[in-house]
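Project outcomes to date are best conveyed with an example. Our students and postdoctoral researchers have been running inverse folding experiments weekly, and each run begins with a structure described purely in tokens. The record below, which covers 333 residues, was selected by the lab manager from last quarter's runs and is presented without edits.
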């Protein structure tokens, strides 16, 4: 075996591909499906995620030491050393994230391919559902489910790990400033928990209406002249219903986004005001404030991504339930 083949074989064992054989039936429960189709892939994805955590904290501590020790101590050699370490950490983190993201894509596309083959190859399945629903499942919903399966464990693990790691670092370095800054995350969590059930309900209605619209358009194209008017009337009604549902979803979604963005500005402001006061009073250092501002910015995006994932998880459970109903032949036609 050549060196290149050995490397390829090693990579395929460490980062296995998704099995191409379609499942006979989709299991009940979204995460049961995740385990059924990607359990071998989830382990390396989670391991790659764990490797990212220490490389997320290192830049914050390096920034603090650069300001306090290198610049504050007028030590040029230490400045070069810490700057070189910062660059090395950034390169290492970038390489790990690149490998992780490429593998995420492979897993997601592998699951999508497997689900599409399940839909396309099963003749009984094709006979049980309308063509519009079948096309929607193969083209759109299979891809959404496949993409979610790849991220279902590694993505929330990464975002939650980054948030908890940085929050823990901030609490260790300066508990008072950390508590004031982190307090602005609590209202975001409460708001999402209150609004999400309504968004789930609207999303389920939207998905069902999209399917019925696809079926109505297909029936309109196949119908005789006497039946075409009825099919067109049904399509118009569904288009109007979809319009109303999308507007309701937009109002809720962007209302939550507005509040979260406002809270996202209040966090760094609290670090500057409270931290600035403590610097002036000699109770903390300028390097700590610089590191906290950077840490808050690094933490804000994962926190938003985590809240978005929670919303996506809730909506994906609704969508997977609809896919499973059709795939297992239990949908009401």
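After processing, the design step wrote out the following sequence:
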């Amino acid at each position: 075996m050549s060196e290149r083949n050995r490397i390829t074989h090693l990579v395929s064992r460490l980062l296995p591909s998704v099995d191409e054989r379609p499942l006979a039936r989709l299991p009940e429960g979204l995460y049961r499906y995740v385990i059924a189709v990607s359990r071998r892939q989830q382990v390396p994805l989670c391991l790659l995620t764990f490797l990212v955590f220490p490389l997320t904290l290192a830049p914050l501590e390096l920034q603090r030491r650069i300001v306090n020790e290198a610049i504050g101590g007028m030590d040029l050699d230490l400045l070069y050393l810490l700057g070189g370490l910062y660059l090395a950490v950034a390169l290492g983190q970038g390489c790990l994230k690149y490998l992780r993201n490429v593998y995420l894509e492979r897993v997601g596309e592998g699951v999508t391919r497997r689900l599409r083959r399940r839909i396309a190859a099963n003749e009984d399945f094709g006979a049980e559902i309308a063509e519009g629903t079948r096309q929607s499942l193969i083209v759109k919903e299979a891809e959404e489910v496949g993409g979610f399966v790849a991220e279902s464990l590694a993505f929330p693990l990464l975002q939650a790990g980054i948030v908890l790691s940085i929050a823990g670092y901030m609490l260790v370095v300066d508990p008072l400033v950390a508590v004031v800054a982190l307090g602005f995350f609590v209202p975001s969590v409460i708001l999402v928990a209150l609004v999400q059930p309504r968004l789930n309900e609207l999303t389920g209605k939207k998905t069902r209406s999209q399917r019925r619209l696809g079926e109505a358009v297909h029936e309109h194209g196949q119908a005789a002249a006497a039946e075409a008017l009825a099919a067109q009337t049904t399509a118009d009604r569904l288009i109007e219903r979809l319009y109303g549902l999308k507007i309701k979803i937009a109002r809720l979604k962007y209302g939550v986004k507005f509040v979260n963005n406002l809270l996202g500005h209040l966090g760094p402001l609290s670090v500057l005001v409270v931290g600035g006061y403590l610097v002036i009073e000699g109770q903390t250092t300028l390097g700590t404030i610089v590191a906290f501002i950077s840490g808050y910015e690094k933490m804000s995006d994962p926190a938003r991504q985590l809240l978005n994932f929670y919303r996506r998880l809730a909506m994906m459970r609704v969508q997977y339930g609809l896919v499973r109903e059709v795939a297992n032949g239990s949908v009401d036609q």
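The CA atoms of residues 136 and 211 lie 7 Å apart. The chain has one domain: 24-327. The training component of this project remains on track.
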